[in-house]
Give the backbone structure.
Amino acid sequence: MKAKTSIVLTGVGGQGVITAANILGKAAVKAGLNVYVSEIHGMAQRGGTVNCTVRIGDVTGALVANGTADVIISTEPIETLRYIKYSNKNTKIITDITPVIPFTVSVGMEEYPDLEKIFEELKKYGTLYKIDAVKIAKEAGSILTKNTVMLGALSGIDILPIKQEILLETILENIPEKYKEINKKAFEGGLKAIGKH
Amino acid sequence: MEILEDIPGRKLLLLGNEAITRGALEAGIDVATTYPGTPSSEIADTFSMIAKNATNKNINPSFYFEYSTNEKVALEVAAAASLCGLRSLTCMKHVGLNVASDAFMTYMYIGCKGGHIIVSADDPSCHSSQNEQDNRYYAIFASSPMLEPSTPQEAKEMTRLGFNISEELKSPILLRTTTRLNHIRGPVEINKLKEPRHKGHFEKDPMLVTTPAVARVRHAELLNMLKKAQEISEKSPFNFIINVGKPDLWGIVTSGVSFNYVKEIAEDLRLNVRILKLGMTHPLPKKMCENFIKSCKNIVIVEELEPILENQFKAIAHDIGSNVKIYGKSTGHFSRLYEYNTYIVADAFSKIFNVKNPFYKPVETKIKLPSRPPILCPGCPHRATYYAAKKAKPKDVVYPTDIGCYTLGRYKPLEMADLLLCMGSNAGTACGLAIATDQKIISFMGDSTFFHAAIPAIIDAAHHNHDLVITILDNRTTAMTGHQPHPGTDFDGMGRKAKRILVEDVVKGCGIDHIEVVDPNKIKETTEAFKRALEFKGPAVIVSKSPCILLENRNKIKRGEDIFIYEIDQQKCKKCKICIAQFGCPSFYYGKDGSIFIDAQQCNGCGNCASICPFDAISPKEAIK
């Protein structure tokens, strides 16, 4: 097989998952690489499950086949597990540890599984990296930088064919001046957190 | 704006939909029209964004753009512009072409003058649609030339060059896309932008009036056009053959996004095949197809949804007396259902080519994961209307619904959506239910849907005096597709001031005598209005007016107004659960001890929970900016 990198990004609507996927795409173009990004727009404006894929290199399509993700990166624990079909034993799984409780759980129709059980389960399917992105984002200056924290973490696992500087540069190019500093901090926070593993 | 960059050769990362808009700009688009619908919306939204930007800066936008009342109107507007010699584009989701089909079928008879591209965005797997119909049949049905892009780059080029094809043939052409083209981003190499012409001229011609005598002549001309189109198809750069490995007697025929999966899997599996990639799929390049069939002993056809290429290839093979074996849907290797992906293609190829599927079997977790169904947003005024209607008559009511946010009324705890066909069907089916049962009928639709397709059914209700209640949820926007304007807003798609058409005025004009305009946030009064409407013998209409909370809060922030987040006083709360189990705002949640709380992150501050709480336990807490 030829040189391909397949990344699956998941989370909940409103967490910046689609933005993160697009930033990865733009960074790849900037690095002179071939890239395709897919996004699925759900029906509701808020709160649904979100799933994007980014494929870089010698690829012709954006969709990731079952069992072929190099990385699954997720901003919510059950959303990581929901898309586990993309993983194989070599897949790196980066997940935020803070749950976003679905409406179905908060009104008592369904249950949110025990967090530790989710992490145990995830370990069966790949190499698990847990990130407290909410904490890191808050420390950086805003919870809204959570997706930047996740991109920082992603750039720290040595799988992206895009240089760290190019990724950070692309992030900063795509946000207003006044948020640049906190996003830089958030990116570095994510990078540092992954380094501890 | 990146989309307007004018450095030829530069690569931009564009959404398939943006690439279509870019292609039109590079062709010097004059008039673009649409009715928004996922997955097509961003084509038009990009035109709108450019136009609004120009309007704000007091620059004349270089093209005319409108969100039309519905797809049929959109097609008619653009068709007339094209007949004046202007380049036009009309985009819509697949089911939109059903609405426009009456115009489309006969438009093909008279043809166009300025190039006209009609974009149909199909939705295999029904990601956001009521069906997954394959609109390639429309090309065959209407005798329309058709292009099918595989990538954003191709979508841009097919749009840009499609205008030339359309002008050469004097025929509108269909650009048929699918969700995985519309919503995929890929690198697009840009060409120079082209200045439009702005104004054309209508040349009178009796052949433009499709009386039966004209139609009979025009039909013959249409078939002649298709012959010419076939010659274009034979030479089209969008139809090509690539070799993978050392091809022997195996061929693969494919089009659209399926090509992406086919190419990658054929390479990964180290197959020795020739791939015929068809970009102009109607009419087919017949000679090219014949030669391809002659060069193969076995052909695999890979296309999502209907066996359209497959059946045509079988017919061609039969005509030339070929014994080629054709694998596809009829041999059971590919499904007529849902969209494909690399896994599905690899799985079929492993069986056909007798090789191992390189992919792992998908793993599944045994842990039961809670679902996140699409829901009405916290603070959505529709929830208040639903709640008020249910209070007026809690049982034995049938709720026909419609396309838009109100399909979300289907979910617990409201469960107030019982029947849905298409845009506007709530009112038409309400009429039928009123004559067929003694159950009470309360139907729901949005304001954009009302203008789009419900007016004739309301006239039917008035004319026949059907006993029913029709509710129009007027939130002053087309919310679900991304907040586009419509005839009920005081601005248009180019950001210009526009005449606001009031829903209640139109309803009155339709002959409805019992009309009540309510503010759903006054829940008790709204319930009383529903009671009166239910008691009224004959058709009653409730217009429930309150802006979409997402837009309203955005505007409040712009105006510097406070948004108050609500909280529950745990001393006063008696845990009656009305707020969480009956009203069902998703910002409510149970604490570990069964106490009820409001998630400040989610609350949009509508305050309706405070008005329904029987114990006065909910009140505004703090203002967020």
Q: What stands out?
A: Chain A is about 40% helix and 20% strand.
